[in-house]
Design brief:
The chain is an alpha/beta fold. The protein has helices at residues 4-29, 48-54, 61-66, 90-102, 122-128, 170-185, 204-211, 214-230, 257-264, 287-307, 348-364, 395-404, and strands at 34-39, 107-114, 118-119, 138-143, 148-149, 162-164, 192-193, 196-201, 237-241, 268-270, 284-286, 312-313, 315-317, 342-344, 371-375, 378-379, 384-385.
C-alpha cells in the first residue's frame, strides 16, 4: 500500500498533467482563423510604365523618403527598419515571408494590376515565386481593376490625369483569366478556400462597366470559372471587395451590393481598408473612432451577406495617412485624395485590441470559413503597414503574433 507522501506526489503529478493538458485541448477546439495581409507591390525599380512616366529607377520609396510633417503632431516621414528594399529581389522577399509566417500571417493577397498587359508583377514573379522559402506562405491575387491616375505625387489644383483605365474588354479579360490560371492558380502554395483558388475583384463597378451590365459580367465570370475547371481545378473562389465611401479618383460605389453579389455569383465579400466604410471627421481622427465605425459596418455587412448565404471576411486596418502622395509643398487639408484626414493614435497596442475584437467576433460565428484580412503589409504611402519601422520596430507584427499565433 503506498504511503502518504507517495499518494501526495501522485496527486500532484496528475494535477500537473491535467493543467498542462487543458490548454492544449481548448486550443484544439478553437476553430482556425486564416489571416491574410494585402500586399502593394510598387517598391521595385524597372517597371516599364513607372520608368516611362517617372524616370529610370523610380519606385514609390521616393514618396516615402520625401514625406514631411504637414501639421502639428504629424509623424512623417515613416522610415522602414529594413531600409528601402527592392521587393523584386527573392532574398528581400524571403525576409518578408519569414517575418510574415513567424508572426501569424497565413497569406499575402497581392494587389495585382493589368492595363493592356500585366503591371507591377515583378514582386510576385521575381520576388515571391523565386524566394527559397516561398512555401512558408500562401499567396493570392486581388485584381486592383481601378483606374490608375497620376497621384505619385498629386499636385492639388491640377487636372487629375488618367494614365491607365481599369475597364477591360472581353479579349483582355480572357487573356487575364488564362494568365492567372496558368501562372498563379496552379502554383502549389496558391491560397485556396475549400480547394478553390481565391481571386478577388477590387472595383466591382468597373467590372460591371467593362461588360456593359451586371448580367454580362456574370457571363464573363462564369467563363472564368469554366476555364479553371478545364485546367483541372475544382473552380474558383471569387471574392468581391465592398465599399461605402470612394477613395481614389474615378471610383464609383455600387448602390446595391447585396443584389449585385448575388446576381454575379460571388463566393464571398470583404473590404480592403477601413476608410471605405468610415468617416474621418478630424485631421487626426482617433484610431478607436475609426475602429468602432468599422465594427458597426461589419455588423450591417454581415447581416446583408447572411441573407444571401455569402460570407463576409472582415478587415483590420493598421492606419491611414495618404499625405506622402500629396505634393509636399502644398497646404495639407481634407481636400480629396490624397489630401485627406488621417488616423492617429494607431499604436501597436491599440492595433492588437482591434485584432482581438475581430478574432472574438469570428470565433463567435456558428460556421466558417473564418478569414481576416489586414490592410496592409506595406501601404507605406497610405500609412497602413505591418512591416517594421524605426519607431515601432516589429510592434504591429508582434500584435498579430500575440493574437493569432499562440
Amino acid at each position: 500500500m503506498p504511503n502518504k507522501s507517495t499518494a501526495l506526489l501522485a496527486t500532484a503529478a496528475a494535477a500537473t498533467a491535467l493543467a498542462s493538458a487543458t490548454p492544449i485541448a481548448a486550443k484544439e477546439k478553437e476553430p482556425k482563423i486564416e489571416v491574410a495581409s494585402y500586399y502593394f507591390g510598387n517598391y521595385h525599380p524597372g517597371d516599364p510604365r513607372n520608368e516611362a512616366f517617372h524616370g529610370k529607377g523610380w519606385t514609390e520609396w521616393e514618396l516615402v523618403k520625401n514625406a514631411r510633417p504637414r501639421f502639428p503632431g504629424h509623424q512623417q516621414p515613416k522610415v522602414p527598419l529594413w531600409g528601402y528594399q527592392d521587393e523584386s529581389d527573392p532574398k528581400v522577399m524571403a525576409q518578408k515571408i519569414d517575418a510574415a509566417s513567424k508572426h501569424g500571417i497565413d497569406a499575402f493577397i497581392f494587389d495585382w494590376y493589368d492595363y493592356d498587359g500585366p503591371f507591377l508583377e515583378s514582386p510576385i514573379n521575381n520576388g515571391f515565386l523565386k524566394a527559397k522559402n516561398r512555401n512558408k506562405l500562401k499567396f493570392a491575387l486581388m485584381w486592383a481593376n481601378h483606374d490608375w491616375y497620376d497621384i505619385h505625387p498629386y499636385h492639388r489644383g491640377t487636372p487629375q490625369k488618367l494614365l491607365y483605365p481599369g475597364k477591360v474588354d472581353q479579349k483582355a479579360f480572357d487573356r487575364v483569366c488564362d494568365h492567372v490560371i496558368k501562372d498563379y492558380f496552379l502554383q502549389p502554395n496558391y491560397w485556396k478556400i475549400d480547394g478553390k483558388p481565391y481571386f478577388s475583384f477590387y472595383d466591382l463597378q468597373n467590372l460591371i462597366n467593362s461588360f456593359g451590365s451586371a448580367e454580362a459580367a456574370r457571363v464573363a465570370l462564369d467563363g472564368f470559372r469554366a476555364k479553371a475547371v478545364a485546367a483541372g481545378l475544382p473552380g474558383i473562389h471569387i471574392n468581391a471587395v465592398m465599399w461605402g465611401n470612394t477613395i481614389l479618383p474615378g471610383e464609383q460605389a455600387p448602390a446595391d451590393y447585396k443584389r449585385l453579389v448575388q446576381l454575379l455569383g460571388f463566393d464571398s465579400t470583404t473590404s480592403y481598408v477601413w476608410l471605405h466604410h468610415v468617416g474621418l471627421p478630424q485631421q487626426q481622427t482617433d484610431f478607436t473612432v475609426a475602429r468602432d465605425q468599422y465594427l458597426n459596418y461589419w455588423e450591417r455587412a454581415k447581416k446583408d451577406m447572411d441573407e444571401i448565404n455569402v460570407p463576409y471576411f472582415p478587415n483590420v486596418s493598421m492606419g491611414w495617412d495618404s499625405s506622402p502622395r500629396a505634393a509636399q509643398e502644398q497646404e495639407f487639408g481634407n481636400f480629396g485624395y490624397p489630401f485627406t484626414n488621417t488616423i492617429s493614435g494607431n499604436t501597436p497596442e491599440r492595433f492588437k485590441v482591434a485584432l482581438q475584437m475581430t478574432k472574438d467576433r469570428l470565433l463567435a460565428q456558428p460556421k466558417g470559413p473564418r478569414i481576416l484580412n489586414i490592410n496592409c503589409w506595406n501601404e507605406w504611402t497610405e500609412g497602413s503597414y505591418l512591416e517594421p519601422d524605426t519607431i515601432n520596430k516589429y510592434g504591429y507584427l508582434e500584435a498579430v503574433r500575440d493574437v493569432f499565433k499562440k
